[in-house]
Amino acid sequence: MSLVSTWLRRGFLGLVALFISAPLIVVIGVSFNASRRMSFPPTHLSFKWYKAFFTDAEWMASLQTSLTISALASSLAVLIALPIAYAVWRYQSKAAQALAGAGSGLFLLPGIVTALMFSAFWGVVGHVGRVENVVLSHAVILLGVPIAMLSVGFQSIDRALIEAAQTMGASDSEAFRMVVRPAMAPYILCALVYVFVLSLNEYLIAYMVAGFSVQTLPIRIFASMRSGYQPTMCVGAVLFIVLGFAAFSFLAWVGDLPKLMGRHRPLET
Predict the structure, then answer these.
(1) Which CATH architecture has domain 43-259?
(2) 3-state SS string for 25-68
């Protein structure tokens, strides 16, 4: 009976995995199709659409814009979240707790709501259609992600280590540099990567706050769809898949990914 239940469980999980991965497999397969038709499996394997993508100035400009926005937004979000999470953990600051709650609340709101909020904000201040609008909007809206991850990291630090450092004569800044910063490095890296991937794949907010004047890769794909199917769109989708997989594989390689996500190991007896 246990063997049957094991195979049933594996079969169910396998079907779920197949269902989840099926769209990815189709998109990857279509991107290697020699013809312009959206057919799967590919009639003839070819790299012509990859060559067309990487030799097209507009597609490459969109990719560069997306990478730049994502890098700046992730760096800014972590720079804002780090002192907030530290103040909550170290000093139980009410103001920092309020900011952390506001940042998490923005992330939990539906995307269309936050997109409309920031679209109205940039319209009121008269600063529209600019790339910095997208960077700042992504950094603020995704702020809840680094706050949550950095909070997990701070909670994993043994306060006795800080007290021991202070007993040995270390100041608050020296204790932070010697104890807190090394322990927090993997959590900071994890937060940077997560916000980077989320910002890279985000379309709605970027479109609402900047429109087609800022051609990120998702906006470029959407704009291309208006004139009909183009195989280069699938190449762009494959790039998103590869970048996301590479980012999270890197996190799994450099650190304990389940621990970075907040899993606590059971106490040894």
Answers:
(1) Orthogonal Bundle (1.10)
(2) HHHHHHHCECCCCCCCCCCCECCHHHHHHHCCHHHHHHHHHHHH
